[in-house]
Amino acid sequence: MGGDSSEFKSMRKTVETMYPGIYTTSKRIGHGSISSIDMSMQEQIEAFAKLVQEDPRLADGFNILTHSQGGIIGRGYVE
Predict the structure, then answer these.
(1) Predicted structure pTM score
(2) How far apart are CA 69 and CA 38, in angstroms?
(3) Whose CA is closest to 52, among 18, 32, 76?
(4) pLDDT means per 10 residues in the chain (79 residues)?
(5) 7, HSE (Cβ side, Cα atoms, 13 Å)
């Protein structure tokens, strides 16, 4: 508990090093870690879906790499 998208920077850097030219992004849902407590899971999934739709570089599909609760949000988005 208490993590947010900013903590994923080192993973993004690793992926970018392994795959030069790849587009990576971290999506912050709500107001960061507090939103993992005060937003329902459905609200978090909907917020993630909106962020994806707003990013034109994801329009043709994307791979998702998550950690912890992000995995649940990612799965909810896919389903």
Answers:
(1) 0.83
(2) 14
(3) 76
(4) 66 93 90 80 95 96 90 94
(5) 10
